[in-house]
Amino acid sequence: MSEDAPRILVVDDDHDVALLVKSVLERRAGCIVDLAEDGRSAIDRVAEVRPDVVVTDIEMPGLSGLELLAELRRTIPTVPVIVMTAHVSVEYAVSALRAQADEFLTKPLDNARLVEAVTRLVEEGRRRREEARTTEVVLAIGAHPDDVEIGVGGILAAHAAAGDAITILTLSRGARGGDADSRQNESLAAAERIGARLFLKDLVDTEISGGGSTVRLIEEVVREIHPTIVYTHSPHDRHQDHRAVSEATIVATRRVGTVACYQSPSSTIDYRPTRFVRIDRFLDEKLRLLECFQSQAAASRDYLAPEFVTATARYWSRFGGGDAVEPLEVVRETAEFVGAHELTRRES
Question: Which of 126, 297, 157, 177 is nearest to 231 (CA)?
Fold first, then answer.
């Protein structure tokens, strides 16, 4: 089934009715349908599956459909809700409308009308979410040129497609790994490709400190751009520069709400991601970003080979679904890694 298939949550304590609605929406509208048997379990399922539309009965034990609707309007106001009932009355209809239902359907359901309403509200809900989403300010920090592109190139491409502001901070010119001028130009080309701002510092390659001087460099950029999301190296890494940058970043971004660590080719077995972000649509763009670093490819950096990058992304899809995933160790999280847009919304 397509990654863009609408995701619908059907809430009904009558299991036979719920299965009928599920069958109709799967067969006629190509939807992915999840079920909940009452309003309370529906609240948990909404947080878990992030449905495009909720279809709920009114009369249910515990939390009724109208009470569920009121709760959804309080917590997730953009999600469209269809209310259905076997009791046709003006009172029910008025109650549903007052609770801001998007559609009111009566049982037995008209299958054609159900499919039409769900299809229409899927598009409406996605439009609402896009209009409501807050633009993120992203800061990706690496010790050397190509570090962030290897670690989160797909995620950065998704941020770019979503209209987020992206800044890349590279703390050395990578002189020990090649010609510094060539690597600088390659970094500029990669940043330009995704519309990112580039800060390229000149710390000594292989001698980066995790302490004061590096912390201050990062703090300067943080003060200038005010990031809402930061990506950096993991402390679980064999390369001393990567570990130092991770340590300095955690200190320098202590007031940033969301910080996560990406995987590098030198990550150790202790690298243990807790978030798996799907990059199915952006794997090709990641490969094109890595093509910018020709001096490294010419130096036989096998980890830059397209088949290696693709295989790594494919491996992590075991945990995140889809065909390609970039893993992250979450230090703290208050923002969505790729916003509320639809491009990588099925990351877990």
Answer: 157
